[in-house]
Amino acid sequence: MNITQTLESLSILTDSDALFCELRALISKNFTKTLANKDKIISFYEESEIPQRKCFLKFIKKLYEKQGNELDVTFAKYKTIKLSLVQRNALTNIYNIDIDFLNDEMIFTLNNTPRAFASYILQNFKGNESKFDEKNHKFSLKIKKSDFGLIEEIISRREHLKFIVNFNYNEVKFQEFKRNYKIQNSAKFKSRFSALANLLEENFEILGCSNKDSFETVRDSYLALAKIYHPDRHSNKSESIKNEYNAKFKKIQAAYEALKPFFKNQENFIKVG
C-alpha cells in the first residue's frame, strides 16, 4: 500500500485485492458522497461525516505505519479520499541510500527509505554498536573485522525483502576504509599507540573524551567546549568568573594541541601501512 497527499486529496494505492475490497466496503458503508468503478472509489468531503472519516483515517494510518511508514492525517478528514487497486508489482519503489565511511563506522543516510529498512540492516549486525539520527534520517554502524564479507554481500544486492535499494558509495573510499580498519586493529598499531594514548589520558578527559575516540570526535568536543568557555562570551561577568572560565579555556586549548600530534602520527602510520 502506498499513500500520497496533496492539499485537496489523500490517495491510497494497493495491489492487494483483499485489502482493496475491505477498504472499499468501509467507504461505501460509511460515506454517502462517493463515485466508484471496478478498480477505484472516491469519497468526497461531507461535513456531517467527519466522525466516520476520522475513524477511517485512523485505521488507514495504523495499517500504513505497520509497513514502517509515517502518515500525518491531521487535515486529511477535509480532503477527497481516493482508493485505487493497481496491478501487482506496480507499487515497487526504488530507494536510494548513501553510505559514508569514518574510522570504524559506516554511516547510512536513508533519504526517502523507510526506517524499517534500517531495522532490517541492524538485524544482520545484532552485536554491533549503532546510533540513529532522527533529525538527519541517518544511522551509524560500528564495524567488526568479521563483518566485511556480510557488508559486501548486502551492498552488492538491490533486492532486500520488499525493498529495491540503490546503495550509493565510493568504491575507492570503501577499499580505503577496509585497509585502514585492518591497520588500526593490527597488533603493531595497537602496541605503538595504546601506551601513548594512556599517557595522554588527562588531555582526553579534559575534552570529555575517551582515549579510544577518533580525531573527529575529539575535534567536535573541543569546538563545542571552546565555544562555551571562550572569554568573549563572559566579558560581562565578574572577574572571578572570567578568570575561572579563562583558565578552563586555556586548559581546553592546551589539551587539544597536545592531542593533535598523536592523531597526526596515527594518520602517517596508516598511510605507510
Q: Could you characterize what this model shows?
A:
The chain is α+β, with helices and mostly antiparallel strands and 273 residues long. Helices cover 48% and strands 20% of the residues. Strands 8-9-7-6-11-10 form a six-stranded mixed sheet. The protein has a five-stranded mixed sheet with strand order 1-2-5-4-3, with helices on one face. The chain is built from nine helices and eleven strands. It folds into three domains: 2-85, no CATH class; 94-170, Alpha-Beta Plaits; 186-272, Helix Hairpins (Orthogonal Bundle). It has helices spanning 17-30, 50-66, 115-123, 148-156, 171-184, 187-199, 201-206, 215-229, 239-272; strands at residues 2-5, 9-14, 34-37, 40-43, 80-85, 94-102, 105-109, 130-133, 138-142, 159-160, 163-168.
Could you name the key traits of this structure?
single chain, 273 residues, alpha+beta, Alpha-Beta Plaits, Helix Hairpins, six-stranded mixed beta sheet
Order of helices and strands: EEHEEHEEEHEEHEEHHHHH
Number of strands: 11
**Structural class, please?**
alpha+beta
Estimate the strand proportion.
15-25%
Rg over CA atoms: 27 Å
Shape: elongated
| Stretches with pLDDT under 50, minimum 5 residues | none
| Mean pLDDT score | 88
- CATH fold annotation of the largest domain: Helix Hairpins
Count of discrete alpha- or pi-helical segments spanning 4 or more residues: 9
What is the level 1 CATH name of the largest domain?
Mainly Alpha
Strand order of the largest sheet: 8-9-7-6-11-10
CATH architecture designation of the largest domain: Orthogonal Bundle
Total number of domains:
3
Distance between the termini: 51 Å
How helix-rich are the residues, as a percent range?
A: 40-55%
Characterize the biggest β-sheet: 6 strands, mixed
